[in-house]
Structure prediction request, 670 residues.
Amino acid sequence: MSASTLFEKIWTSHVVQSRPEGIDLLYIDRHYCHEGSFHAFNALAAEGRRVRRPDLTFGVADHYAQTRPGRLAGRAAPPDPEMGRLIEVFDRNMAAHGIAAAGLTDPRQGIVHVVGPEQGLTLPGMTVVCGDSHTSTHGALGAIAFGVGASEVAHVLATQCLWQSRPAQMRVWFDGLPGAGTGAKDMALAMIATIGANGAQGHAIEYAGEAVQALSVEGRLTLCNMSIEAGARCGLVAPDDTTFAWLAGRPGAPSGAAWEAALARWRGLRSDAAAPFDREVRLDTAALEPMLTWGTSPEQAAPVSGTAADPAALADAGRRHAAAQALDYMGLAPGARLEGLPVDRVFIGSCTNSRLSDLRAAAAILRGRRARVPALVSPGSTPIKQAAEAEGLDRIFTEAGFEWRESGCSMCVGMNGDLVASGERCASTSNRNFPGRQGRGARTHLMSPAMAAAAALAGRIVDVREYVA
Amino acid sequence: MSRQPVTCIEGLAAPFDASNVDTDQIIPARFLRRPRDAQYGSYLFHDLRFDEAGRERPDFILNQAPFRQASILVAARAFGVGSSREGAVYALQAHGIRAVIAETFGDIFFSNALKNGLLPVRLSLPVVNALRHAAAGPSPARLVIDLERQELVAPDGARHAFTVPAFARECLLAGQDEIGLTLSLLPQIEAFEARRSNSPA
Prediction:
């Protein structure tokens, strides 16, 4: 048998049927729904179709979840009743089709890409889909996980399969270990700045190298989460002892003899040494500085000591045009220094950076200090919120002047009404700095939780290493 | 249930000179809570087409005659990147757009478009740029996009070959309902499940 990549091994074991046109009917082990899946349920209902495997489907209410305190006591009415109605429609769809779900009142509730791994519902070797592009997150556990649109959500609901063509294989090596004040988010932004927001289009990325091996599972979830921002179909990390230790004992993980049998299978989930990749990229992680975006595409990122682009210095006409437009939207001069840029607001949360280690990293910077600008933190799940409270992180945040919110997608995408005002500059731990993403006219700078916390304290962009030194 | 087949699209092209067009631009997130209906056309590029008071921005291409009637959008590089929201496709279609031409597309948008019969046409950047310049020229540019022959005919008569993944093309030409097709393979799917429950992956 020829040498194959981790991705190919998982893919091959899920092919139900191959067609001569070069497309495979791929079996899906785990399908996550959220409120936005209502389009697919409507399509299903219109054709009188049923959910074929509700037992392999799991729902989480996140996009429209209100995050203000007291949401279950009726003290956080949505700004638009339609948002509340979508949560009800979600509950009805889950109940009508017999799908287990973490709705708004469920103690497991949170952001779908945080809850799935946390509950052990995503496991090594699985195929995972969800009607959300950040499904790439789940690849951190050694799974093929990718986002799909409503038509494919309906297709999975009805058949538990998808017609897919196999993407090309790309491997990104992170050589060396990141220094103080840098981590998974900086690695992701540095990669996207290097290969471009479409640099991995049509590819599955396997992350490898010393820095990836050293990352916690939470860090790997952050890295894989941002795969889609490089245009990749998905991103994944070979499961190892770090993965297995993190999964052990989670509700959805096997136990007893089944756990031992699973471990034996999972240990084989790695790319063969001779497996060919269509493309390999190497990045020097040891030289990494804290990163942030200055523009309106995740590829428009630079080290904190750097500057925004000067369009006049760009040779490519398309990039010059894009940079000029981005600077105009962001209210920045060509070549503006990033350090010292005043911020109006800080958001810590999203499926990228809302896990316990993210909250700890931010709290370590904030402890005993006071934010100069309004700031909001929304933990990735209700269990994470409780764990953070148990170790007193909530007090560090609130004493620093942060709003300590309930869990949901919140200000990453603003669908629940948590918005950044037009013209405001927001230091955000989320994943997209597109125009209008956090609200019409909002100016987003993506960065790590530690960098966002430092920005809150200074009221401007600062190098977090000044606070951790 | 079968779909409306897509075979050949002929129409007016609008030049849309932008790269990295994310689906948040195509349809802002706040409109996604609406069920799919004809209103989706008014959400298309909403924050680019309308100012904060809801007035049309005259400089936006789709607000200019004759491009209000355009059924083909000629973009540049990387159209439909980012979010998986299929609402981006619904908005384009509800506005009357039947095909988008670009050098590359976001993978999820590309798939969503094909599933709905919106044709994403990939051509080399020089060809895309030339078509966009023609569309922006003094006389309206009509393009013919023949899915059967996988060929685009430019206003000057030049023919440009493009490819659509074979399976998607067959489904579009035949108006094939993919879910129906897959359900016809239920015995194979059940056999796969039975094999896997005996020896899990």
